[in-house]
ABC-2 type transport system ATP-binding protein
Amino acid sequence: MIEAYGLTKRYGAKTAVYNLSFQVRPGAVTGFLGPNGSGKSTTMRMILGLDTPTSGQVTVGGHTFRGLPNAPRQVGALLDAKAVHGGRSARNHLLSLAQLSGIPARRVDEVLGVVGLQDVGRKRSKGFSLGMGQRLGIAAALLGDPQVLLFDEPVNGLDPEGILWVRNLMRQLAAEGRTVFVSSHLMSEMAQTADHLIVIGRGQLMADMSVREFIEHNSIGFARVRTPDGAPEQREKLLAALQEAGGQAQPEEDGALRVTGLPLPRISDLAHGADVRLWELSPHQASLEEAYMRLTQGSVDYRSTADMRSGLQQPMAAPGTAGPGAVPPQAAAVPGMAAAPQMPAAPQGAPYPGPYGPPQQQGAPMQPGVPMQPGAPAPQQGVPAPQTPPQAAPPQPRAPEGGTLQMRAPQAPAGGPGTPNPYATDSPAPPVGPPAGNPPGTVPGTAPDSAKNEGEDA
Ligand SMILES: Nc1ncnc2c1ncn2[C@@H]1O[C@H](COP(=O)(O)OP(=O)(O)OP(=O)(O)O)[C@@H](O)[C@H]1O
């Protein structure tokens, strides 16, 4: 079990992790999610004793990492697959790690086999592809047959077969009763691999719950309704009836409607009352990716802007105006591609809106664009529609029944409302002590924070 209490890490004026408390339990795969720069790697490095918390603490099996007896046999980690001496063969790299930790040499051949590198074990790792390097990093993590495993982006660079293999490996390790903590940006992968999720944004805890609960709490269910093809008047009649009843409808690519704000039986009754035949009426739940986007969109530090040199943009409007060249955040600017779906942020403190979404006043459309009017054309491809601006606060979930679910908006620092949030200012933080040197029992394949640059470019 990994347990963090009030974990905080500052690098000079930069607060990378703030007041994080969570538990990672054995027997499950726990996904660790958060936007770029949200503090996932920093947290993992603190768990592994490679970074020293500014305050708070994190323990593995009740001990700080440095207090763990024979740590490399108890904790394995893949943090940075490139942290390998490229001139050494894969086998020699693992052998040197094994020797440092008192692990028998035969285990090296075992783990080379487990990760599928047995045929290239004597080749120098500098010739390895990204995926082979990942496999070598995973082999290093498995070397001590540890009960606790941390993987930072393990599927990075792996081909589909490799991704499937990692998924099965994680699940198998958890089924053996081990603690498996894995960060990833691949939501579809996490949805299939993880049992539980810990989500952070700007270094602070945003969600700690099962995958199922996470999707339930952060997504709006919807109904797909399809009227007969080639009968636009039927579709328009249905649209009018849905809107009159307080529902919202968005066009889907295949001509169906995505309806929120009305339960399925009501939609059926409305269609019947309007004398409209239906080819489809089906319930849907958003994906983990949609739920994640919805929760974290207020915590994203790095957003892309359109490339004005692509020749595809109108001239930029004056700052502060939404002129023809203004590009909404995350809107696709590629010809022939529709803007990516933009999930609206739920209003802070809003209750869970129920399986078919909130009533109209709460139910911002799930797709780009304004709610569709009867007879209105579907949004043109390649034309980003107006979008709801991101809101800073994540939604508040309902409390679970008898569970350990917690989900919080980023917490204000202790000290009351007048205390500045470290994320709101660049005010100097208390000085951080010099990074500790290589701790005894450093996890194979990882480097202490003394190897990292703690400074920031001006
Ligand atoms: N050694 C360091 N010195 C200074 N700042 C650092 C250091 N390590 C991390 N940071 C900063 O702390 C913040 C969190 O970084 P971290 O690498 O933990 O994020 P992350 O969630 O792992 O990001 P990503 O998903 O992009 O890998 C970032 O703003 C980063 O620039």
The pocket of adenosine-5'-triphosphate is lined by residues 11, 14, 16, 34, 36-42, 452-454, 456 (CB under 6 Å). Residues 222-284+349-388 form one domain. The radius of gyration is 25 Å. Residues 313-441, 449-458 have pLDDT under 50 and may be disordered.
